[in-house]
Amino acid sequence: MSVLVNKDSKIIVQGFTGSEGTFHAGQMIDYGTNVVGGVTPGKGGQEHLGKPVFNTVQEAVEKAGADTTIIFVPPAFAADAIMEAADAGIKVIITITEGIPVADMIKAFNYIKGKDCRLIGPNCPGVITPGEAKVGIMPGFVFKAGEVGIVSKSGTLTYEAADQVVRQGLGITTAIGIGGDPIIGTTTKEAVELLMNDDATKCIVMIGEIGGNLEADAARWVKETGNKKPVVGFIAGETAPKGRTMGHAGAIVGGADDTAEAKKAIMKECGIHVVDSPAEIGKKVAEVLS
Fold first, then answer.
1. Residue 96 assigned to a binding site
2. CATH code for residues 138-289
3. d(Cα 148, Cα 205) in Å, to the nearest integer?
4. What is the pLDDT of residues 179-217, one digit of tens each?
5. Residue 246: what pLDDT?
6. What is the distance between the alpha carbons of residues 290 and 286, in angstroms, rounded to a whole number?
7. What confidence score (pLDDT) does residue 62 get?
8. Known binder of ligand: residue 31?
9. Is 159 annotated as a binding residue?
10. Does 20 carry a binding-site annotation?
């Protein structure tokens, strides 16, 4: 079992022939991901990396049966790419692009609300189901298949958590990088819920950071639904100075409730196993699973 992506996903790359799209699509194909083509307007009918290039997402859906997309489109055009994918009937839209204007994302977010699709990101590392599909920019070799799900705002901490879990002789069902922008498609709670409802996932690692209330919302949901599976939590940014954006556009402390300390306190109250360092994640997962 897995969530969002697996060996049967039919994946296209928007921004396929650009430098970023080319590099990461090549890595995805080498991993064994079922990439069925890509989209670059004006280059339809060509072949790239041994896969067909389409002018539109609609054409990729009709001709290749695409149901999942990964977006490497420049920031100015990325929101349009999201809306085009949703319009064409793509079910999972994974947006890697960083720096999409907030006004554009608000428009895209509202546009896809009524559509039958799920947006991951933007400004995220993507989603991986080890051994089946790598739809993102993560180093695939770090991830091994197993029974631990990962939800993270941070790309590098996603890889660190996976490495920690694997070093304990365990593995990952699906790792979801939700992104660190102020406006994202799938929240921490929604991603945790996907893994909570996945039979193969026995434990969830939830990695957050300062700013916003996504982790608190997720923690309260976990408690309200009866703590069905153990959740190990970590919040990055404990030493960040107040009022300064740290790394991610969404990582800015606006009030007393979105500091690392406040989030950790809420998570602990909700029965989540909170660690103070990312280096402790693997050990804590092994402990709660034993």
1. yes
2. 3.40.50.261
3. 7
4. 999 999 999 999 999 999 999 999 999 999 988 899 999
5. 64
6. 6
7. 98
8. no
9. yes
10. yes
- Identify the pLDDT of residue 250: 72
Identify which of 24, 5, 1, 17 has the alpha carbon closest to the alpha carbon of residue 186. Answer: 5
Structure tokens at 69: 């997309």
* Residue 245 counted as an annotated binding residue: no
Low-confidence stretches of the chain (pLDDT < 50) are none
User: Fold identical between 11-120 and 138-289?
Assistant: yes
Domain ranges of the chain: 11-120, 138-289
Fold observed for domain 11-120 = Rossmann fold (3.40.50)
The reply to whether 193 sits in an annotated binding site is: no
Share of the chain above pLDDT 70, in %: 95
43 is in an annotated binding site: yes
Active site (annotated) includes residue 273: no
The pLDDT of residue 237 is 82
89-121 pLDDT, tens per residue? 999 999 999 999 999 999 999 999 999 999 999
With contact defined as beta carbons under 8 Å apart, do 70 and 15 qualify?
no
pLDDT of residue 239: 66
Query: For residue 252, what pLDDT is reported?
Result: 65
Q: Which of 24, 48, 248, 273 is catalytic?
A: 248
